[in-house]
Amino acid sequence: MLCGGSPVLQHVLHHRMISSPGFHCRNSGGTPILHNCFSQREDDPELPAEGLSPVSGGIVALGKFDALHVGHRELAIQASRTGTPYLLSFVGMAEILGWEPRAPIVAKCDRKRVLTSWASYCGNRAPIEYEIEFASVRHLTPRQFVEKLSKELRVRGVVAGENYRFGYRASGDATELVRLCEEYGIGAYIINSVMDKKQDSGKRDSGDLKDRGQVSSTRVRQALAAGDMRYVSELLGRAHQLILQVRIQDMPSERRISVPRSSVLNLPPGNGIYKSCLLLVGDELSIPCSVVVDTSDIHVETKELRLCNSDWSQEFRLLSVDFG
């Protein structure tokens, strides 16, 4: 996760093959860089030819990637500068920790599209998501977690935000992550938080004690609830897309779609009227529309009749509303 508030931590550590384990890679301006700072794990003769983990030899960004916002994208960019970028996160946390269920900011079926759009920032390589069951790592100490990264997953390097916490009860911080990675021969890079540029962002009370004005999924959720779609776009680095599961009976007229909230696959904006939206039907149709969000339904109204030309042979279709 990218969180602010701690002093600037920027460490780049070499793999054990570097003669001086405390060596820091920096450019002429003194800013740590990733290039050539991780050893090529694929040259390791101890690497088994078969049974490799899916992230073996890769660079993993660590975090909770709910919103896939610009801070998360920055982690992926840094990871891509040295190798194949992966986003490593945990699944099943809410169930185990007893969190209230809530709609995702990005629909699961839409995440690949978003990550593909990041390829142009990441050396034409779209980041790949890799998930671990939270139950399998919940009780690991910080040392045991890094050992898992090294010996089981065999990653070549990690990238994390400056106040990333890990290990049992979040007992490890970014400084300890760097130290343990050095010990286990993994490159580690800690990046500064991406800060919210909105002028009044500092006045917003997110309820998060770690909030120091950085871009976060919490801020995205608050902006969505307020219906501030321009602000949402700034935080995400793209327009928010709402994915609707639409049946033919959800079309009371040729120009209107009304779906219950139960048929929405991710988080809608707060109740209100949203004009200048786009209804996306597959890869072919992009129809100007307006959207009304109320407590029970999402209503989409267009000025064109092209909806009736869509293929409704299936029980339902997935349509997207772009709030750009």
TrEMBL record:
EC number: 2.7.7.2
Entry's localization field: Plastid, Chloroplast
Alphabetical list of CDD domains matching this protein: FAD_synthetase_N (cd02064)
Record domain FAD synthetase: where: 137-199
GO cellular component, one term: chloroplast
Cofactor requirement: Mg(2+)
Main location: plastid
Domain of life: Eukaryota
Pathway: Cofactor biosynthesis; FAD biosynthesis; FAD from FMN: step 1/1
GO molecular function, one term: ATP binding
InterPro entries for this protein: FAD_synthase (IPR015864), Rossmann-like_a/b/a_fold (IPR014729)
The protein's enzyme class: transferase
Pfam families xref list: FAD_syn (PF06574)
Entry keywords, A to Z: ATP-binding, Chloroplast, FAD, Flavoprotein, FMN, Nucleotide-binding, Nucleotidyltransferase, Plastid, Transferase, Transit peptide
Biological function: Catalyzes the adenylation of flavin mononucleotide (FMN) to form flavin adenine dinucleotide (FAD) coenzyme.
Protein name: FAD synthase
Species assigned in the record: Arabis nemorensis
